Amino acid sequence: VQLQASGGGLVQAGGSLRLSCAASGRSFSSYTMGWFRQAPGKERECVAAISGSGRSRYYADSVKGRFAISRDNAKNTVYLQMNSLKPEDTAVYYCAAEFGYRLGSSSTEYNYWGQGTLVTVSS
């Protein structure tokens, strides 16, 4: 599966952005999808993940209540709605996919990665 992320940009603190990740290939609904981010000098961290059916979700504590992950299996696309953005949310955001139903939160659990999209939140 190939992944193409988009939607990053510059936003003021308190603003919103929606990231999209389009997947090519078949059986998109058989893949768990995740959004990760990596800030300069920091490790890559999972901010959200969603099961193939969309019924299960994971959120990092740092984004709970502000970010929402969703997917449209008919469009082979996963989204990350980011609200109430903070300067500490500034990072390169990556989407990732892993075949199966395990809702992983570690980068080692994902085999397919898209290119990153930069999100910059100004104070």
Structure commentary:
This protein is an all-beta fold and 123 residues long. Helices cover 0% and strands 51% of the residues. The protein contains no helices and eleven strands. It has strands at 2-6, 9-12, 17-24, 31-38, 45-50, 57-59, 67-72, 77-82, 91-99, 112-113, 117-122. Strands 2, 4, 5, 6, 9, 10 and 11 form a seven-stranded mixed beta sheet that branches. A hairpin with a 4-residue loop joins β7 (67-72) and β8 (77-82). 34% of the residues are buried. The model has no long low-confidence stretch (mean pLDDT 96).
Strand content: over 45%
Termini Cα gap = 37 Å
Please report the number of helical segments: 0
Compressed to H and E, one letter per element, the order equals: EEEEEEEEEEE
* Share in helix: under 10%
Q: How many strands? A: 11
Structural class category: mainly beta
Topology (elements, then pairings):
Elements: E1 2-6, E2 9-12, E3 17-24, E4 31-38, E5 45-50, E6 57-59, E7 67-72, E8 77-82, E9 91-99, E10 112-113, E11 117-122
Parallel strand pairs: 2-11
Antiparallel strand pairs: 1-3, 3-8, 4-5, 4-9, 5-6, 7-8, 9-10, 9-11
Question: What's this entry about, in short?
Answer:
The chain is mainly beta. The chain has no helices and 11 strands.
Features:
mainly beta, seven-stranded mixed β-sheet, globular, 11 strands, four-stranded antiparallel β-sheet
